[in-house]
User: Fold this.
Amino acid sequence: MFNKKLVSVVLVLVLLGGSLLYLTGDANAWWIFGDDKEEENKTYTIRAGIGLNDKSAQYKALEKWKQMVEKRSDGRIKMELYHSSQLGDDREMMEALQLGTQEVTCPSTAPIGEFVSEFKVFDLPFLFPNNETADYVLDSKIGQNLLKKLEDKGMIGLAYWENGFRHLTNSKRAVKTPADVKGLKARTMENPMHLAAWREMGANPTPMAFGELFSAMQQGVVDGQENPWGTIYLQNFYEVQDYVTNTGHVYSPFVLMISKKFYDKLPKDLQKMLKETAKEVKDYQRRINREMNAEYREKLKDKMNVTILSAEEKQPFKEAVQPVYDKYKDEIGADLVESVLQKVKEYQQK
Ligand code: TK8
Assistant:
């Protein structure tokens, strides 16, 4: 026995759906009967975590990105920002991205080198002579192809941001020559190439997460560390470090990245928007970072004993770390090292 009522309800629904499909010409118009369009109404939360504090250019750029993303997604994406290693250190946050338990982070390339070895190339000592050369190489095919390599490791690289040239600080003495570095217990980022470079200079390096650094210096576990001017000032390192030298020995950019697990779940339009806005905010981040590094270099002169080396005075430091190139060339990929060096030269000849 047919249930007449049921048959007519079904018939009406089918007719209604058919005319809706016909009128809108939209195959997705069936959503009123199903959940095909659920995706479009879904909201997503991005937790973005960094190691630096909320005064950094990195955090300010994240704030700008958050505004853009929330506006352009019409509220479909909500972004929560965490600074000062609240979600973990660089390595831990990358692992969380792989697992899909955190969505966004922006680590230095130094710890990324332990996930994708090729990334060590941007941590070769004295690789870039200035910021503009770094921009040129990072935004070139070489830099962009490297970002793609992160995908195999569960991360999507969106853009290179700047941290800045790194300078050596310590609590013992003014550093003017590599001989002054001898025996200094220096914290480095977690990357064996950084350790090797400091060993070549005669220091006694030890790798450590950024979040542990301030108290390690305060307690004298380490004598020194290296970071850009902005970080030395804004993280109050000058309170526990008396000397700084403009060694500028390594660039180690930031990479803004998103969890692949999360990204793959997003509708296409949101994926596209995230990539586009990340590119836009990159220029802002680099600009304010440069302004801030210049400003805080000057401000540090009131707080620390600042040694400014000339290009000639930096030469012995450069020579001391040259063995690192040979030692790590194969691990990074000799061809990649060669083509990056070539790109650097290309920019100088422009
Ligand atoms: C912040 C780090 C930091 C880096 C370091 O998470 O570890 O010294 O310079 O900025 O990425």
Notes: The longest strand covers residues 155-161. The mean pLDDT is 93. The two ends are 86 Å apart (CA to CA).
